Amino acid sequence: MNASSRAEIGASHVLHVVGRVTEAVFSFLGPASEALAHAGYDQTIVMLDDPRHAHTFKFPVQVRLLTVPVDALGHRHWIGVAAAVQTLTATHQFSAIHLHGFLPWLLGTQMGRCIPKQASVFYSPHGSRTLGLLRPFQTALAWCLSLGSPTHRQEIIFSSKSDAQRLAVNGVQSVVTIEAALDEVFFNTPRNEARRPLVVSGDHHDDRRSVEMLSRLAVILSAAELGLNFNWIGDVGIASAARLKAANVGAFPILDDARIASRLATGWVFIAAGESTEFPVMLASAMAVGLPCVVAALPYHLDLIQHGINGLVYHSEEEALAMVSKLVDDPELRISLGAAARVDALARFSKSKLDQALIAAYHHTPQPVHAGTLAPNEH
After folding, report:
1. Across the chain, where does the E strand assignment appear?
2. Does 133 lie in the same domain as 202?
């Protein structure tokens, strides 16, 4: 849709307030901004600046992007975010404000008087650590999130079922779950197992627990003379890189989705450990490629993997070792679990499903007359 046709339909204007953009956040926000752009919505994104944004996180060209420099010594950058949002809401009439993450939500609650009365307010936690806090504080948070306003339509949009379930136990039921989306390249990349057994793991950030787990498995299984190779996909720090090298694990930094999919496709088994404090994008990507996955029994993993149906769940390193060995020796089991994982990933994490669900959630958002204009990619 070109600029002139967008102007003719009088598209709504959505303000996204993000904070730090992680891979889990972008797996929702990236496809969401594309879906809204295709549907004719104008969009402005306010987020904290980060060197990764320049080459990793790409938004539609129609989106107006305003970044705030990160304060390395503290959290004064949130003052900058607040100032940017106040300026925007004073000069533009937004039909919807979407707050991504706990701190943006907290900022939004303090700025309620600045939000146009006709604007809808959406909140997406994206795996916020506050959802895992002690129950009394979690209950208080749930109560705050459920507070409505007679002048604002408010709605919670979760990007994972796990987040929705954790808050539902505290009484918040009026929520929408719109799961993250993966690039089509993961679903279209054919499986191409390496000639020698290859165990793959990875994360988009330096997950030291996962690195340690994979390194221990590599050392133990190498001693068993099974002829296994091990690869880590993702960026790692100096300490993690040294640990992987000592365990003879190949390390491949994050480049683009096509190369990640290609690396995953050569694996025989994908193993996921780590803390999993947010949606596990690499695990979902491995499922989409069709890898049989062995995962730790953690909430976000259990949200994706059903033991014995579309993957295997372990409760100890001994179980993980046994499951990896079993999959290496059983090609039919690898094929069946991998195929089931791919079917489930396509059903849950396709962009088309996110598009339909998101537009439905935004469908009743008011259509304001713009109070001003903003140049694209303003910094």
Report:
1. 13-19, 42-48, 64-68, 96-100, 120-124, 153-158, 175-177, 198-202, 229-233, 250-252, 269-272, 293-296, 312-314
2. no
